[in-house]
Amino acid sequence: MNRIMAFIYYLFLSFLPAFVGGYITSKNIYPWYGTIKKPDFTPPDYAFSYVWSFIYFSLAISVFLASKKVKENNVNIMKIFYVYIFLNATWSCLFFGLHLIVGGLVLCIMMLVCLVAFIFNMGKISGTAAVLQLPHLAWVIFAFILNYIIYQLN
Predict the structure, then answer these.
(1) pLDDT digits over 85-123, tens only?
(2) Centroid of chain to Cα 70
(3) Crossing angle for the helix pair 45-67 and 3-28, to the nearest 10 degrees
(4) CA distance 148 to 40
(5) CB 53 within 8 A of CB 18
(6) What's the confidence (pLDDT) of residue 76?
(7) How confident is the model over 15-66, as pLDDT tens digits?
(8) Which residues have CB under 8 Å from 133's CB, separation 6+?
(9) Which domains does the chain have, with CATH numbers?
C-alpha cells in the first residue's frame, strides 16, 4: 500500500468511532444526556467534537508513523489499535445509545488499559508516535473521571 493510501486508511479507521459515536450521540444526547446530573467541570457539548477530532487525527498520525517501522514481531501494535477503535466506538453505543453509565465506565477502563498498552508498545517503535498519544491518554483519563462522577450522581 503506498504511503498516501496508508495514511488515508489509518485516518478513516481512527475516525470510525467518531462516525459511529456521532450518529449514536446525536440521536440520544437530548433529552437523556441533557437531563442526567453531571459535575460542574463537564465541558460544553461542542468541546467534545473538537477534542476528539484532534485525538483521532493524532491517532492516525501515530499509527501511520509506527506502520512504517512495524515488523512481524510488532504486530501487537496494530492489534491493539484495532481493539481500541472497537472499544472507542462501542463506548458511545453503551453510554449514549443504551444509557448504560456503568457499561460506559467499564468500557472506559478497558480503553485506558488498551491505550496504555498501545502507547507503551508504540514507544518501542516510534517515540514521536507514542508522545502524540499523551494528550489522548489525558483525555481518556478525564473521560473516565467524568463518567465515574456521572455514575455517582445518577
Answers:
(1) 999 999 999 999 999 999 999 999 999 999 999 999 999
(2) 22
(3) 160
(4) 14
(5) yes
(6) 80
(7) 988 888 788 877 777 788 889 999 999 999 889 889 999 999 999 999 998 8
(8) 58, 59, 62, 115, 118, 119, 122
(9) 3-153 (1.20.1260.100)
Q: Pick from 110, 122, 117, 115: which is nearest to 138 by CA? A: 115
C-alpha to C-alpha distance for 82 and 21, rounded to whole angstroms: 16
Distance CA 135, CA 146 (A): 16
CB under 8 A, 24+ apart: contacts of 112-121: 112/137, 112/140, 112/141, 112/144, 114/80, 114/83, 114/84, 114/87, 115/84, 115/140, 117/80, 118/77, 118/80, 118/81, 118/84, 121/74, 121/76, 121/77, 121/80
Peptide bond into 39 cis (omega under 30): no
